[in-house]
Design brief:
The chain is α/β, with parallel strands linked by helices and 384 residues long. It is built from 13 helices and 16 strands. About 3% of the residues have low confidence.
Length: 384
């Protein structure tokens, strides 16, 4: 049986080999990719529980096993049921009949969408899930058994696709590069092996340390003031959007995640960066420890996403907070007829101090322009 210690030890050894093969240093984006996606060992590729409901005893400060974090579809079925209104409109406007979901997690969002679209009289021709995690795929197949004839799993995008693309908390898990300004000089912050471990024998897992190297890379904006500053750039997320633009011949994409427009992302006061780890419904800022046992994320620069999309041939449908998007799509009406417990959970989707303000939705499309209901009020595209 694989124990947490043996898993992190094996993954640490694999990462140490990569560091040694690259002259003793790898960029943080390479480290993050290995920590999350190494087959069989990385966080999203091993069998540990990841998605679930909030532990009942968490408020008392007692961590409870079972999952590491809860996403909106696990929080309440009203999330997917409400999103279905926007998906239905997009399918009808673009005259397509397929949904593509990236990073489908437990399969909860897919189930909510499939059931709601079926009830609306809009059954899909196909629901395609793009997910790199074999362990999550097994869970998704169990969750979506009733729709086995509609759902398929693919490991990569085809050369062309049509339909509606969805990504809920996908961009934040894409590896980022770390840039650090120290005493006025910019460095790329990467990962090396702890020199204190040299020569040690036995079963001790390798330990990792930060190591900076001078770089020509820069944030997209000049950071005001001269204090030390740590931040991220997002080449992989932007590359993902460019690939999507290249493959999507007609349709729309809705990407939901936490983040900011560029001028907020690179604000002088946000000098510690946004990289964060999640385990057992707790957060910590140290991605170099317990590798493989916790999620590693970074906030999204939505301006960078929008620019990458436009440069590659997609247009922006809109950009707004999750709260405004869900309200535009009819969440309040659904809450009015839902049981009290469901309403309480759904409120977290739109409350400013919960998910309502920090989470944003960006809509992209290819084809003729149209007005998406999710951005009918409160569109913030002008802030990107």
């Amino acid at each position: 049986m694989t124990t947490p210690y043996s898993l992190t030890s094996a993954l640490s050894a694999r990462i140490a080999q990569a560091i040694a093969a690259d002259q003793g240093w790898i960029g943080f984006d390479a480290f993050m990719a290995l920590a999350l996606y190494t087959p069989g060992l990385g966080y999203y590729a091993n069998d540990s529980a990841k998605f679930g409901t909030m532990p009942a005893r968490l408020q008392a400060g007692v961590p409870v096993g079972g999952s590491d974090f809860v996403t909106a579809p696990e929080m309440t079925p009203l999330f997917g049921q409400t999103l279905a209104a926007q998906v239905a409109q997009a399918l009808q406007v673009t005259q397509t009949a397929e949904v593509w979901e990236f990073g489908a997690g437990s399969g909860a969002l897919a189930l909510q969408l499939l059931e709601t679209l079926e009830a609306m009289g809009l059954p899909l021709a196909r629901y395609s899930i793009v997910d790199l995690s074999g362990s999550l795929r097994a869970r998704q197949q169990e969750t979506l058994a009733r729709f086995a004839g509609t759902v398929r799993w693919v490991g990569e995008l085809p050369d062309t696709l049509q339909g509606v693309v969805l990504g809920n908390e996908v961009l934040d898990a894409m590896p980022v590069k770390l840039l650090a300004r120290v005493n006025g000089v910019w460095y790329e912050r990467g990962v090396a092996l702890d020199a204190a471990m040299d020569g040690q024998q036995g079963g001790d897992a390798p330990r990792f340390v930060w190591h900076d190297r001078p770089t020509e890379l820069r944030p997209p904006l000049d950071i005001e003031r001269v204090h030390d500053y740590l931040t991220e750039i997002h080449p992989q997320a932007e590359s993902f959007v460019r690939t999507l633009a290249d493959r999507l011949t007609v349709g729309a994409a809705f990407l939901i995640d936490y983040g900011f427009p560029e001028h907020e992302y690179y604000h002088p006061q946000r000098h510690m960066g946004t990289v964060m780890c999640h385990r057992s419904h707790r957060s910590d800022p140290d991605p170099l420890s317990d590798v493989g046992l916790k999620d590693i994320t970074a906030h999204v620069n939505f301006t960078g996403i929008a620019l990458a999309a436009q440069e590659a041939g997609l247009n922006v449908l809109g950009y707004c907070t999750q709260a405004r998007f869900l309200i535009n799509c009819g969440l309040v009406a659904r809450m009015e007829t839902a049981p009290l417990a469901v309403r309480v959970q759904a409120q977290k989707l739109i409350m400013e101090h919960e998910m309502g303000e920090l989470f944003k939705v960006i809509g992209l499309y290819k084809g003729d322009p149209w007005e998406a209901i999710g951005f009918s009020q409160g569109d913030r595209t002008h802030t990107l």
